[in-house]
């Protein structure tokens, strides 16, 4: 990596752009302004679009930029996000979370991979391609970078339908996914959607002494455990009536392609530190991760959690729940089915409320025979003699579905993440080799177009 690229990369990483934290709004604005100036240094015209203030709270800006190209060539819309996950638990970081630290060829920092590192490397490749183009015609390039991807993309979801002309493109390029094992190139042919919400159970009017009221007052902590346990059957399948309505199963070609390059159960066990036995028994890891929907409990909170003991019956309990959705499922229909299930299974003495619902977006799969996939496979085959594989990612980038609709573009998701990057965890990192791959992909894609 050239020293000027390293300097720019490190400058970008130092912004504490946690989009979900209102206290970090200034950091997000400064980060977006830095990216605007950087894009303008090689021919883009950029604008920070400030979302409307909602409930008295301002959201991070959306950066929209464009560089006109030759008529008759495709228009490429590049999507990425400059916001990052919170750094908690801070004590688990071995290096300062927002000070890039290079160790054995890896850069450790929050955002080093997700998605500052990935998208910046890809954009560096585009800059390389433009600087070497000479008199050759180049495509029209558009860029949209947001500051809320990690918390639901609310602003961009609302703004995108109003910016159809500005976003109109032929190809929607996203560098926010993973490569196959050994950094073999991977084209993501589908993503699951995601929705999330909070469930709150209220019982007594105050925390109660567990001796004086134990066996008399209903216990919200016990009740929340019973309630979330009711969402699944003993075999791990989802117990919610109507949850699976409309699911479109994968084709045999898609299933074979996904299974052909999937990591082994042993590889997953080494990665996560336990046996990969989540989900429905009897289904393969690929089925469970790529083609099946899920309901996951992301957190349960009730009563006292500090050192020692505090013998209380808590007055309330809550659970954070997310759902990964697959093609054919109705986002609203799934939520309504889960809400009804929760209402029907609320334990006696409890008052249920469902809060903070974020509908997100549904899942999608793309046809393997699409022309843009053929082009990408050719370019990636030149980059790596092993050629590209197809993957159906169990993760979600909900705004991709919205941008696809608003821009009319064909999504092309190629990224270079690896499990050891530890995204969303302490000690996130991105290797210089991965950065170089993402940069080369951006350079070669624009040259091919």
List keywords for this structure.
single chain, 449 residues, alpha+beta, Aminopeptidase, Alpha-Beta Plaits, 2 domains, four-stranded antiparallel beta sheet
Structure report:
There is one protein chain. The protein is of the alpha+beta class and 449 residues long. It has two domains: 3-192 and 364-448, 3-Layer(aba) Sandwich (Aminopeptidase), CATH 3.40.630.10; 194-253 and 288-361, Alpha-Beta Plaits. It has 13 helices and 18 strands. The strands form four sheets. Strands 1, 2, 3, 6, 7, 8, 15, 16 and 17 form a nine-stranded mixed sheet that branches. Helix 1 runs antiparallel to helix 3 (116-131), helix 3 crosses helix 13 (432-448) and helix 11 (371-383) crosses helix 13 (432-448). The longest helix has 17 residues, at 432-448. The two termini are 25 Å apart. The relative contact order is 0.19.
